[in-house]
Amino acid sequence: MKGAILKAFGSPLAVENLPDPILGTGEIIVDVVAAGVLPYANEVFNGERKYMLALPVAPGPGAVGRVRAIGPDSTRLAMGDWVTCDPTVRSRDDALTPDITLQGWSARGEGGLRLQRHFHHGSFAEQMLVPTENVFPLGPIDPEEADRWCLLNLLLVPYGGLLAANFKAGETLLVSGATGNFGSAGVAVALALGAGCVVCPGRNQVMLEDLKRRFGSRVRTLTLTGDEMEDRERMKRAAPGPIDCVLDLLPPSAGTKPVRAAAMAVREYGRVVLMGGVGMLGGDDLPLPYPWIMRNCITIIGQWMYPREANLRLINLVRSGLLDIKNWDVRNFDLADVNKAVAHAAAESGPFKVTVLRPVKMK
Questions:
Q1: What distance in Å separates the CA atoms of residue 104 and residue 128, rounded to the nearest whole number?
Q2: 3-state SS record for the chain
Q3: In this predicted model, what pLDDT tens digit does every residue of 155-198 receive, in sequence order?
Q4: What's the whole-model pTM score?
Q5: What is residue 363's predicted lDDT score, i.e. its pLDDT?
Q6: Does residue 121 contact residue 177 with C-beta atoms inside 8 Å?
Q7: How far is CA 287 from each of CA 188, 231, 263, 270, rounded to the nearest angstrom?
Q8: How far apart are the C-alpha atoms of 31 and 125, rounded to whole Å?
Q9: 31 exposed, middle or buried (CB, 10 Å; 0-12, 13-18, 19+)?
Q10: Cα 91 from chain centroid?
Q11: Per residue in 63-116, pLDDT tens?
Q12: How far is CA 291 from CA 235, 236, 260, 264, in A?
């Protein structure tokens, strides 16, 4: 098979031949039809993000494809089935605190690296070896729509935060980072779940207007001023009532002030979910006042990724029509043009834009 190989951080990806994956028990081999290229992929490949990634490797987190081979412990999947592959690989020998690797992307600690060495290559290749529990059937789809189904791996991240917060229909959500790639996806997922209102702060007026145009009156936008106290009050005033939950998805380049302004706009007994990258590359930590948290009975939730069952729930949201993946503009690239795809993803990193690599061409 062919794959796009990252041999050293800072070097371009090289499309070369790789050994075909060998099937084992508890594993599935998938022909990769479509693989999403994240907007910050260039920051991973040049080493800026300092991700734990054993090289050389065919990177790429998650994929949409067709089952090529199944292990003896798979009883429902069949060869040729359309599936999505969840990159969040967990060790199987600790149910409470499993080691985790994001296949083809990054690992957490030595245990995560051990997982990464086995489930090594990601989705920037024609075939992918995936744990059985990470493969989810999509049902029949139009092959030309495979690109759009890659959006599941984007949408799953904010969905995981909303599940962690036990977000309910009719509640008011504030999305910190709403004009970003993951934040705008969070707005779409929250509305699909029945949010009464989603408050969207940001600095990019064009993107804020686009959110209102796409989703209508349940979205309330406001322009950030940079003054923390003023922005907090503006967030509260933008909401039709108390803000029940805050979901932070700001990137590592953001400072702590907008995070704190958003977090402290939540009501008494409210929930704050931290899922962004603030502080990952150094800089100030996020200070939140102890008395405010304690006296207002605030629940602070740190959430990385999402539970396994979120995949099936999200597929059902799309299948039901509650979550419309046609909202996104898709640009796809052949495997041979992988470096162009990475550059395009970085340059076109706004909301409702997705870059997709197509390792296998469907006939």
A1: 10
A2: CEEEEECCCCCCCEEEECCCCCCCCCEEEEEEEEEEECCCHHHHHCCCCCCCCCCCECCCCCEEEEEEEECCCCCCCCCCCEEEECCEEECCCCCCCCCEEECCCEECHHHHHHHHHHCCCCCCECEEEEEHHHEEECCCCCHHHHHHHCHHHHHHHHHHHHHHCCCCCCCEEEEECCCCHHHHHHHHHHHHCCCCEEEEEECCHHHHHHHHHHHHHHEEEEECCCCHHHHHHHHHHHCCCCCCEEEECCCCCCCHHHHHHHHCCCCCCCEEEECCCCCCCCCCCCCCCHHHHHHCCCEEEECCCCCCCHHHHHHHHHHHCCCCHHHCEEEEEEHHHHHHHHHHHHHCCCCCEEEEEECCCCC
A3: 999 999 999 999 999 999 999 999 999 999 999 999 999 999 99
A4: 0.96
A5: 59
A6: no
A7: 29, 17, 11, 18
A8: 9
A9: buried
A10: 20
A11: 999 999 999 999 999 999 999 999 999 999 999 999 999 999 999 899 999 999
A12: 21, 20, 14, 12
Q: Provide the token pair at 270.
A: 């409210």
Burial class (CB in 10 A: 0-12, 13-18, 19+), 257: middle
Paired tokens of 233: 């009050």
Q: Which two tokens mark 257?
A: 């002030």
The total number of residues shown for the chain amounts to 363
Question: What single letter denotes the amino acid at residue 185?
Answer: A
b/e code 301-311 from CB counts within 10 Å (16+ = b): eebebbeeebb
Could you give the dihedral angle defined by the CA atoms of residues 43, 45, 46 and 52, in that order, rounded to the nearest 10 degrees?
Answer: 90
Domains with residue ranges and CATH for the chain? 2-141+328-358 (3.90.180.10), 157-302 (3.40.50.720)
Question: Could you identify the residue written with the tokens 């990385």?
Answer: 304
Residue type, 241: G
Tokens 């009532």, located at residue: 241
